[in-house]
Write a structure and sequence with these properties.
By secondary structure, the chain is mainly alpha-helical. It has helices at residues 3-37, 40-47, 50-61, 64-70, 76-108, 113-120, 122-127, 131-139, 143-166, 172-193, 204-237, 241-275, 280-316, 325-335, 338-350, 354-376, 380-406, 410-435, 441-462, 466-476. The radius of gyration is 22 Å and the shape is globular. The two termini are 15 Å apart.
């Protein structure tokens, strides 16, 4: 990796890490406050809409954000063209979903969803205005600006949600929080990139990016269906809104933790891999380093959250959420592997293998749907376990692609990830035995976090792990 790209990547990872770390701290604080004031029924109302709003966002983006990042040197007319195309798509799709609101409410047997969904879906119209500016920030690795904007939007939207929940606005507080966050992000992106769309534009750049963009569109839609399939099926099959709300809460904490790692790497992965895509040996080194970085943080973080889920839930959001603990424990085990999907997908995107990316996604949804439906008659926990096992095993298909494309052999994958898996598992086992005598919840939670952190760091130090050594050298001792 060249010194310039290495420095840009290191700085990007630092700011991306600061952003995602601080974001998760804020998310935890905001999530705890809202969960204490709201009920599982409230979370069920907005939880079942996630798949629709995310699908709408995929359609609105149409893959052109990734297409812009993949261009060697995108021009202003490219950004202008994508802006107007996405804006028009957003308006059309909102009209379609507005009309479909009664059907959505009928499917989930929640009449309130007619009104709620029509308000929630305004979010992707607002977000449609910032696709080009967001791509500009990511393309230019402006992670400092992204961090400042993300944290500001999260803090302000969190205040709005908490104030409304305190005022007794129930699930509307969650809706307001979402819309406030999206609005601030949209305005902030324009401020930082200092780019405004021109009224004189042509759709020719869109047509030029259409092939790649459409592949990304369909693939992103497929990935969204895959990630939200379990929520969708549970929301329809499980008649208890409280149970749906418990699953939504468990999955929220799982995704919040796993995305801290996946988004830290994901904000940089495509832009960095595009830079080295013509050099297979260099691309392999970059990919493997990102894989080790992901495993270094994801394994202990997610295994640790699984370990402390019982005391964490009781201490933070209260006993009314105790039924989400078993689901959270299982989901967090699978969450340790989610950042790997982000890397493999970015490898496919940066290399222009959109068709392969698409078919892998479609195959995943088909097989995943079959597995979940097979276990659906046995209750919610068998569905959750089957979902997690499938997530872990399906990584093998992506590894097969990486092996053929950049020579990422299975032994390399095991060498890069298995040590962290074993170290994290051993750490949690030692932590459990060392703290099992503690009965008070607060001391138990704090003790397990501290003990796990010390033990894992010590293990990495003893084996002279290269990721830990580089973190110490680059960010602590600040050696070149």
């Amino acid at each position: 990796m060249s010194a310039n790209l290495k420095d840009k990547t290191a700085k990007g990872l630092l700011w991306s890490g600061i952003n995602n770390g601080a974001t998760q701290v804020l998310n935890i604080v905001i999530g705890i406050c809202l969960a204490r004031m709201l009920t599982p029924d409230d979370y069920a109302v907005t939880g079942v809409l996630v798949i629709f709003s995310t699908l709408a966002a995929n359609l609105q983006d149409s893959g052109f954000s990734q297409a812009l990042i993949n261009l060697p040197s995108p021009q202003k007319r490219d950004y202008d063209s994508v802006f107007w195309f996405n804006f028009l798509m957003s308006v059309v799709l909102y009209a379609v979903l507005f009309a479909c609101a009664p059907l959505i409410a009928a499917y989930f047997e929640m009449p309130c969803l007619v009104e709620v969904s029509r308000v929630v879906f305004l979010g992707f119209v607002i977000a449609g205005l910032s696709i080009s500016s967001g791509a500009y920030l990511r393309k230019n690795l402006m992670n400092r600006e992204i961090a400042i904007l993300s944290l500001s939007a999260l803090a302000l939207s969190g205040v709005v949600g908490i104030v409304m929940a305190f005022a007794g606005m129930t699930y509307w507080s969650l809706v307001a929080q979402q819309l406030t966050y999206i609005s601030i992000i949209t305005l902030g992106r324009f401020y930082f990139c200092r780019w405004l769309p021109s009224l004189q534009f042509s759709f020719s750049p869109v047509r030029r990016m259409m092939g790649f963009g459409m592949h990304m569109l369909v693939t992103n839609v497929v990935n969204t269906i895959s990630e939200n399939l379990l929520t969708f099926i549970i929301g329809h099959n499980i008649k208890s809104k409280a149970t749906v709300g418990d699953f939504t809460q468990a999955n929220k904490w799982n995704l919040m933790a796993s995305k801290m790692v996946s988004e830290t790497v994901g904000q940089l992965a495509q832009a960095v891999l595009v830079e080295v895509t013509n050099d297979r040996e260099r691309e392999l080194r970059v990919f493997r380093k990102m894989l080790r970085f992901s495993a270094f943080f994801a394994m202990p973080a997610m295994f640790g959250l699984s370990l402390v889920s019982h005391e964490f839930v009781l201490v933070t959001i209260g006993e009314k959420w105790i039924n989400c603990v078993p689901m959270m424990r299982v989901l967090c085990i699978g969450g340790a592997f989610l950042p790997f999907y982000t890397l493999y997908r970015n490898l496919a995107v940066s290399s222009g293998n959109g068709r392969l990316y698409l078919w892998l996604g479609i195959s995943q949804v088909v097989v995943q749907l079959s597995v979940i439906l097979y276990f659906s008659a046995q209750g919610i926990m068998p569905m959750v376990i089957a979902y997690v096992v499938f997530q872990v095993l399906w990584l093998g298909t992506w590894q097969t692609f990486a092996s053929r494309y950049i020579g990422m052999r299975w032994r390399m994958l095991l060498s890069d990830t298995l040590p962290y898996f074993l170290a994290a598992a051993a750490t949690m086992a030692l932590t459990w035995f060392a703290t099992s005598f503690i009965t008070c919840l607060w001391p138990l939670l704090v003790a397990r976090i501290l003990v796990a952190g010390v033990v894992y760091t010590a293990l990495m130090w003893l084996v002279r792990d290269d990721i830990l050594n580089e973190i110490i050298k680059k960010y602590i001792t600040k050696k070149p």
